[in-house]
Amino acid sequence: MTARISLIAALAATAATAQAAEAIRPGYWAMTNSVTSPINETKTENRCITPKAISKFTGCYINHHYTCTCPEQSNADGRIAFHGDCVDAKGRHAQIGGEGSYTATTLQMSARGKFQYMGMWFPFEAHTDAHRIGEICPVGSPGSDDR
Prior knowledge:
Blueprint: H1 2-21, E1 27-37, E2 41-49, H2 54-57, E3 66-76, E4 79-88, E5 93-102, E6 106-117, E7 120-134
Antiparallel strand pairs: 1-2, 1-7, 3-4, 4-5, 5-6, 6-7
């Protein structure tokens, strides 16, 4: 009986370690990004996700126009959650929060918040659905320069 319990505990520990080790893999990814508010727009692109860019890909990031600070951010065990504030070069703010799930080769994430424009706040909502399509990025592909 003790050997059986030890075996079950060892299998559970191995499964937990395997799950914890499962992180987003760099490579060539197909991404569909949808903004559903304030205007509806969907964009699909293939993008290189470098090791350096994984934290942007899975966290508090709007685009290269904004610098974001998210004191509430986690990315572990296949779950993503974040909440914070972003500022563009003109000092305009956007408050953002999001959540999602991932495996080594897939990502689904939703974000919502509000942005400031001409002194007024406007709500936004966006969704990303992505999957890895290859290990190697084509030369010159979007994202290969870590933006």
